[in-house]
Amino acid sequence: MKWRFTVLAAIMAPASLIGCATGAASGEGAQRNASAGAGALYHGFTMIDPATKKRVNDAWIVVKGDRIAAIGAGTPPRRRYGKRVDRSGHFALPGLIDFHGHITAGPHEVKMVDGAPVVTIESVDNVVEMHARMALAFGVTTVRNPGGDPAANARYDARIASGEWTGPQAFHAGAVIEPPPFGGNAFAYPTSEAAWDAEAARQAALGMRYFKMYTDLSKEELATGVAAAHRHGLKAIAHLNGVSWTDAARAGVDGLEHALPTSPDLLEPGARETYKEFLANAGPSSKYMYRWFELVDFEGPLFSEMLFELSARQIQTNMTFLVQDLVFNIDDLDHVIPPADNRYSHPAALEASLNFLRASAHDWGPADFDRARRAMARVLEFGRRLHEAGVPMAIGTDGAGGGPIFAHELGRHVDAGIPVWEALRMATSGAAEMLGEGDRIGRFKRGMEADFVFLTRDPLADVRAVRDVAYVVANGREWSFGDLTTGPGSAPVPED
Q1: Helices (H) and strands (E) in the chain, counts
Q2: DSSP secondary structure code for residue 246 in this structure
Q3: pTM value?
Q4: What beta strand segments (E) does 180-337 contain?
Q5: What is the DSSP string of 168-185?
Q6: Is the pLDDT of residue 23 over 50?
Q7: Strand (E) positions, 151-270?
Q8: What angle do CA 118, 123, 129 make, to 5 degrees?
Q9: CB 147: neighbour CB atoms within 10 A?
Q10: What is d(CA 439, CA 356) in angstroms, rounded to the nearest whole number?
Q11: How far is CA 127 from CA 51, 56, 239, 490, in A?
Q12: How many angstroms separate the Cα of 36 from the Cα of each of 18, 64, 167, 471, 478?
């Protein structure tokens, strides 16, 4: 399946398309310490807690240090506070969690090396710093990064911990395991069991939590990678094409990425042969992204078997519906991403992503776009069926860690038929539990980390209101949206 490299690069392109600002406030001046003195009291707002499905009017929170010290409704405790903040008219949610945010990714590039194309996604500091700031600006306080240069990931963690950079905490996968033409520091391809073991050990030593395997691996390679990951205490996650999700679950994979289960083995006989013939004739095209959904039988035994395995084994998933939305609307991207949101993108990242997206649709005509857009209903149905089967799901953007696209992704889950309360849980406490951090982040509770966001609109009335952020509190520190999105312009991306 090496012919898909241009398409797959385009699928990864949203990682740099949206999610970083062209300007940012200086870190120390923008931060307000919410734990000064005897603590900070926030009061007067409507609290929305997806973990308990409770809406609390006239709520209040006391923050001390980086923790929630007290929480309630009505008249707050009478005491002296370091500061009192009236948030009347606002709606509070726990800090959002992007479960598929490439927080350390730089612009995609294709280079010729020894006469062959190599796709790279090298981390660039000024791009990453903006990614982080804009993720936080849109209320994302935690990111699960599903792959990147492990050394760059470790540097990100150190800079966030030291306060040099402002952004969400992150839990990372290291270099993505994929054969050429993918290369550079963000990819690796072990070719022996010892090499697999060494790569997993390297990533674990650099503080990675996940080990990601990619589309062109064989079933045998996937099994080898899962075993290597588990030997070194890493969770094995995968974005797969040839290997079916059923086989991946049985191989012990811990998580599956994207609403792209596009293996022929999940199609019933007849449809499977039609799809294989299509793949053989399609060439380097992204048309398979809609063709598989045209052919799959959601009531058939193979799909039902897949649902059973995913649910029984509690395989973690995230749909990233935005991927299909972008590819299926390359001829009209303004329909998906409002032009005004371009100001939240680093120019180099935006240009690279648009180039890759357009390349992936080089052979599409009007009929293809029409078919793809009609197939989107089937993509959304796929996500709803996973949810109804009890498969663990979180919200992931395939962006740079949130940004305005987080609201788009959340809205698409509701469009799929997932209740608003449940979608909000996926974005907060549910994702925290899937990270293994449910006792620390993701909900309003005394002793939990003080991560929450104040919105200007009610997300229960319109879940896309999560993009209307006024203030963010992360680890007990508060920023306004303006603090994080205004200031001096960014420096040019350095040349090689």
Answers
A1: 18, 21
A2: H
A3: 0.92
A4: 187-188, 210-213, 235-238, 255-257, 316-318
A5: -EEEEB-SEE--TTB-ST
A6: no
A7: 169-172, 176-177, 187-188, 210-213, 235-238, 255-257
A8: 155
A9: 31
A10: 40
A11: 34, 39, 25, 9
A12: 34, 8, 21, 17, 11
Note the pLDDT tens digit of each residue in 229-275.
Answer: 999 999 999 999 999 999 999 999 999 999 999 999 999 999 999 99
**In the predicted model, is pLDDT for residue 416 greater than 70?**
yes
Specify the DSSP class assigned to residue 233: T
Report whether pLDDT(19) > 60.
no
CA angle, 356 then 263 then 99, to 5°: 60
Neighbours of 402 (CB within 10 A): 34
> From the CB of residue 100, how many other CB atoms can be counted at a distance below 10 Å?
30
- CA dist 434 and 103 (Å) reads 19
My answer on whether omega of the bond before 117 falls inside 30° of 0, hence cis, is no
| Beta-bridge mates of residue 85 | 42
Rg (CA), the chain: 22
State the Cα–Cα distance between residues 349 and 422, nearest whole angstrom: 33
The pair of structure tokens assigned to 196 is: 């697999």
Residue in the structure block whose two tokens are 């792209």 = 260
If you search the block for the tokens 């609390």, which residue do you land on? 56
pLDDT tens digits for range 449-465: 999 999 999 999 999 99
Amino acid at the residue 446: R
The answer to whether residues 296 and 271 touch, using CB atoms and an 8 Å cutoff, is yes
Q: For helices 405-415 and 366-388, what crossing angle results, to 10°?
A: 70
Q: Comparing C-alpha atoms, which of 181, 188, 249 is closest to residue 213?
A: 188
pLDDT > 80? residue 316: yes
Compute the mean pLDDT over every residue in the chain, rounded to the nearest whole number.
91
Could you tell me if 421 and 430 are in contact, meaning their C-beta atoms sit under 8 angstroms apart? Answer: no
Using alpha carbons, list the distances in angstroms from residue 173 to 51, 91, 126, 207: 27, 33, 21, 9
